[in-house]
Each structure stands twice: as structure tokens, then as C-alpha cells.
Amino acid sequence: MRAFLEGLKKILNPVADALHCRGALDSSFAYLMENLFMMWVILACTALFLIVLVVIIVLSVKAHRRNKAIRRAEDYPQIAHTPVPVSTAPTPTPVAEEPTPVETTQPVEEPVAIVAEPAPVVEEPVAEEEPVAEEKPVAEEKPAPVVEEPTISPAPVKKTAKKKATPVAAETAAAVATEDSAEEKKQTKYRGKWTICKLTTQTENDENKEVMYFFELHASNGEKLMESQEYTSLAGAKKGIETHVNNIQSGNFKISLTKKGTYIFKLMNAKGMLLCTGENYTTRARCEKAIESTKRFAETAVIDETVQEIVIKVPADEENTVATATTEGAIGKWIVSKETDSEGNVAYYFELFANNGEKLLSSEDYASPNGAISGLETHKKNIEKGNFRIVPTKRGDYIFKLLNGNNQLLCLGEHYKTRRLCQNAVESVKRFALSSPTVNDVE
Questions:
Q1: Yes or no: is domain 333-440 CATH 2.30.29.80?
Q2: pLDDT mean over 116-141
Q3: Which CATH code is given to the segment(s) 193-314?
Q4: C-beta of residue 263 within 8 angstroms of C-beta of residue 287
Q5: What is the DSSP letter of 189?
Q6: Which DSSP helix (H) or strand (E) runs through 359?
Q7: Which 3 state secondary structure label does DSSP give 278?
Q8: How far apart are CA 36 and CA 193, in angstroms?
């Protein structure tokens, strides 16, 4: 069944690309591969739908043929009864039943005098209605049946004109409506939105306030696709959107396996430094689809000029807060580890622990153990230089960021309730990072 789904997906990929719904197609097939029972249910429902459709088509064809036969039966009796007035000559009876009795009175009163002249008199209205005159050759024997021809001809002529005019008008109106709706869909489909948020954090006693800016990319249905890092000004946030758009269009994405076994995508700049991370996804396939959705929506996304205000209350710092592991000469531990998912993909990372086992720092993931070791040395150098930044979060707490010499993000610390606790964690990282040995759990 998986092989069948893969083959079907390859067939439908060009169609999905043409309709700009590749993300939806990939998401559907990924879901079906994870839920084969649902695939069988869908196949069964599809088969049932096809059977019902065939039955409806067969019944429609039969009904159409039956209606066509009824219409023919309504037309043929009029032609079949035309010889009756010739043989029995009771012309008044059929003439009285027709809707135009005035036309039949004159030939009945003077049959002998008008026998030689009926042709020119009757042919004048027939010439205006050419289709009817050609269909009634039976009236050539005697003038009496010829009189009935005008009563038959008007109805089909009017019906024919209506049948020709109605479909053309309907098709024209449908075509115009289809073009308008298609144009509207092109303008609104895949239109994302960049939302800028102003984050204000203040202590419970309103003594200290901090203002940071960040932005989010949302899909047309409101789903959040990515969230940026913090900026100190609104102008910096708007400039950051331009940087993100350029790198999204360049395809500078990287998919990483997290320590929790989930997948996230990272947007990198041209130098390979981290700009921001996406959401967590259970499979790599879903993460890849999220990247494709991000590309599509970022291409047409507009910036919402209304800045969203977010105000968060944080607890005041306590004077008796003590930093973690203040003992002089205490030695922590750097541990290099790896994570392997069900598909065999491996990610390498390292963490810094205090002597009491508390985790102080966790790196981003690397593709190889050598890359992780090299990254650890880079982290040590920037820790020694004190390249830290403490920022508030939307959760109402604080985290520290470790930056390189160009102020580009290397890694994020843990979450802390107050700024003082976060600052104490930074001091602990500085103390343990340089004196702690490295333990390689990969080998």
C-alpha cells in the first residue's frame, strides 16, 4: 500500500504544482501513510461513490431516452392522422379541435373553386417557416391536409428559437462568472500576513519596563508558520522582515531533529547563522511541507501596519536570590550526545551541566560529531568574551542568548522566572564552561 501511495503521489505532483496545492497534497499523503486504515476507508468510500455515480448516469440516460421517445410520440400522431380528413372528408371535426379554426373555414366553404389556388395561398406562410414546410411532404396529394400545416409549424419554430438562445446565454454567463471567480481566487489564495508584535514586560510593582519587538508569519487561515527573535525597535523588526523574506526566497532552510524526537525547520542567513526556528512537527515529511507553505505564503505576505500590543507582568527580583553553584573551583560537565529518529536520521548536540546536575546550556543540533565538537569550542570562546543577552519572553519569564562576535545567535538558555535568576544563570555558565571537561557519549 505504501508503494501504491508513493506512485500515486508522483503522478499527482505535476497537477498539484499547477494548481499551487502541493503542500496540501503532501500533507494528505503523509497522513495516509501514517494511517493506512484511513486509506482503506477512503478507498472503500471512493469505490462506493463511483458505483453510485455510475447508477445515477445509467438512470439519467434511460430517463433521457424515455423523454425523447415521449416527445416523438407526441409529434408523430399529428402526421399519422392527417390522411383521415382526406378519406372520410369530415373536415369540420379536426378543424374544430385545432387552435386556428379561422384558417380552415374558407377552404371548407368553397372546395371546388379553391382547389387550383391553395398552393400559392398556403405557401406564403410556409415560406417564412422553412423547416416545417420541408418536413411535411404528405400534404402534396390533396389541399385539405395542407390546411393543417400552419397549425403544426408555429410551435416547433418557437421552441427551436428558444433552445438555441438559452444555452448560449447560459454558457456566456457561466464563463464570465468562472473567470471572475478564478481571478478572485488567484488574488486571495496563498496570501500570508506578517504581524509585528510589541512585547512590554513590567514588574508587578510597575517599577521597571522593557519593550521588545518581534514578528510572526501567518497563513491565510491564521496558522502561525514562524516567529522571529526579539528586536529592540520597530524599525529593526521591519528590517528583519526584509531579511527573512530574502532568505526564505533563497531557500536557506535546515531541518533538525530535536532532543525530544520532533522536527523543526531553521531559517539561516547566507553565512549559515540562525535567524529563527519554526514549529515542532512529529515527522520530517510534515516539517518539509511546512517549509513549502512558508515559501508560498511569504511570497505574497503583506505587513500588517497595526502593531499588536502584548503586556506581561513579571515578578520583581528578590534580593536574596543566590546564583547556582557558587562554590569556587566547582567543576561541571560538557556532554556531547546524539538523537536518532525512526527513519535513521541522526542529530548531534552538546549540553553544559553544573556540578549538581542542573542543565545550564543546550546547543543547537549538528550533522556530525566533529561539527558538534567544533561548535562546543566556538561556544566556549564566546562565553569567555561574555557575549550574552538577556531578553523577556511572551511567557512572562526571561531567557539568555549566547551570541557570536557579529551578534548572531548561537544558542538559547533555559527559562527563568526573574531577570536576576537569569543573570545568575549566565554567571554560572561562565564559571562552569571553562573549567568543565567534555564527555563524548557518541562514541
A1: yes
A2: 44
A3: 2.30.29.80
A4: yes
A5: T
A6: strand 359-362
A7: strand
A8: 35
Strand-pairing partners, residue 226, are: 217, 278
CB 126 within 8 A of CB 149: yes
Q: State the average pLDDT over residues 320-330.
A: 47
Q: Which helix (H) or strand (E) holds 31?
A: helix 22-34
Q: Where are the domains of the chain?
A: 81-152, 155-184, 193-314, 333-440
pLDDT tens digit string along 240-277?
Answer: 999 999 999 999 998 887 767 788 898 988 877 788 88
CA-to-CA separations, 12 to 7, 25, 77, 153, in angstroms, rounded = 9, 8, 56, 55
Distance CA 46, CA 39 (A): 10
Phi/psi of residue 289, nearest 5 degrees: -65, -35
Among 82, 152, 147, which residue's Cα sits nearest to residue 121?
A: 147
Q: What is the pLDDT of residues 359-415, one digit of tens each?
A: 888 888 888 888 889 999 999 999 999 999 988 887 778 889 999 888 888 888 888
Whether 373 and 389 have beta carbons less than 8 Å apart is answered as no
CB of 26 within 8 A of CB of 10? no
* Residue bearing the bigger pLDDT, 170 or 28: 28
| Burial profile 371-381: b = 16 or more Cβ within 10 angstroms, e = fewer | ebbebbeebbe
Q: What is the pLDDT of residues 191-203, one digit of tens each?
A: 789 999 988 887 7
Give the position of cell 409549424: 153
User: What b/e sequence results for 188-223 when a residue is b if at least 16 CB atoms lie within 10 Å of its CB, and e otherwise?
Assistant: eebebbbbbbebebbbeeeeeebebbbbbbbbeeee
Place of cell 508513493: 6
A 10 A CB-CB count for 300 gives 14
CA distance 407 to 269: 13
Among the listed residues 276, 252, 255, the one whose alpha carbon sits nearest the alpha carbon of residue 265: 255
Q: How many CB atoms lie within 10 A of CB 392?
A: 21
Asked if the domains at 193-314 and 333-440 fall in one CATH topology, the answer is yes
**Residue 55, pLDDT score:** 93
